[in-house]
Give the backbone structure.
Amino acid sequence: MITEKIGKFVSQQKLGFVATVSPNGTPNLSPKGTISVLDENTLAFANIRSPQTIENLEKNPSIEINIVDPFSRRGYRFKGMAKIISDGEEYNKILLSYKQNGVKTTIKSIVIVNVKQILEVTSPLYDVGYTEEELRIKWKKYYSSF
């Protein structure tokens, strides 16, 4: 399900968004900078400062992760079920990986996501004839103007 191409994309992006459902049924969207691929069916992210996300997942493990390249305007939506871990062999292995990759902040727990569905995201600009290279140029120019 999570192909090598998708895995490479996830590892190259530095920000994704995690959607959960609050107890009152409203959506909760939270940015995450630690999303990683564990295997062909599993993503993970670190709980660094995510109290609402964790509280929501404890009551309802449904989750969606959205990662989009801001320059190409392409990405993926990952839908699945989450599990929170805070100790044990799997936790220690993933924690070590984050530390080796430069995460210096305190990780309270790790969210493991069993991915059930992957949907591709593309900009409507592709529908009107823009190429990926044209969009990369357009958005790099836009962001460099700040």
